[in-house]
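Need residues for this backbone.
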């Protein structure tokens, strides 16, 4: 399957913006260090509704491949056996970070995904940056065929260049998990900084398994899940700017 190469990180993310107090000398120990968490219905406030997520499902028929699963409170990610073949299921997710000022310096960031895997099996997942033109976002959708992001399209009609989602080959982070757990993927500060500087470039990440040639999957809890603490969470530590 074809993959898109990651374009060079926008140089602007390293250039001070007009009006930012970038001459101030600060260290991670100063009061200017902020940690903020984003989790639908919980953090940084109960009013936050900035998560967008869905599972992309390959399958033996077009109803599965073109189907949108953006409204499910939980779903499966990994590899499933259908008929006589194995088919992937991938998680695509992004979060609105507009509350962080563009002057801020990102120190670290991590994405936490709640998973449940039965038995004694382990499964390895990789996180990749989703690649799309700026301001051409994928849409979460509300379920059904051609109503939103799917294995074949970004919005129910416009196709991915490569089915299953267009992403950078480089692995952002890799996690091997088992049982009922939280998979925590570290994100590059430069990537998160670019999302803050250019919100239209924030297409989030895609999480996929490396164990495709066998049936092995986990339950993933999504933003619609009834218990807020089990929903995806993004943690960012940054230095205030401006």
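Answer:
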């Amino acid at each position: 399957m074809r993959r898109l190469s990651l374009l060079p990180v926008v140089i602007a993310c390293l250039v001070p913006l007009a009006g930012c107090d970038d001459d101030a000398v600060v260290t991670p120990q100063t009061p200017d260090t902020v940690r903020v968490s984003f989790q639908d219905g919980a953090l940084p406030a109960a009013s936050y509704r900035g998560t967008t997520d869905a599972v992309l499902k390959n399958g033996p028929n077009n109803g599965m491949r073109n189907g949108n699963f953006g409204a499910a409170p939980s779903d499966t990610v990994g590899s499933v056996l259908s008929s006589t073949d194995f088919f992937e299921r991938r998680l695509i997710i992004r979060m609105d970070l507009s509350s962080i000022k563009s002057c801020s310096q990102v120190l670290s960031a991590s994405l936490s995904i709640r998973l449940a895997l039965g038995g004694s099996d382990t499964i390895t997942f990789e996180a990749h940056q989703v690649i799309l033109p700026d301001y051409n976002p994928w849409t979460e959708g509300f379920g059904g065929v051609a109503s939103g992001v799917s294995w074949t399209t970004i919005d129910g009609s416009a196709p991915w260049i490569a089915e299953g989602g267009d992403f950078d080959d480089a692995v952002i982070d890799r996690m091997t998990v088992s049982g009922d757990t939280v998979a925590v993927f570290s994100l590059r500060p430069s990537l998160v900084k670019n999302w803050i500087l250019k919100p239209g470039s924030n297409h989030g990440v895609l999480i996929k398994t490396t164990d495709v040639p066998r049936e092995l999957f986990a339950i993933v809890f999504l933003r619609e899940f009834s218990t807020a603490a089990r929903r995806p969470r993004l943690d960012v530590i940054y230095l205030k700017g401006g």
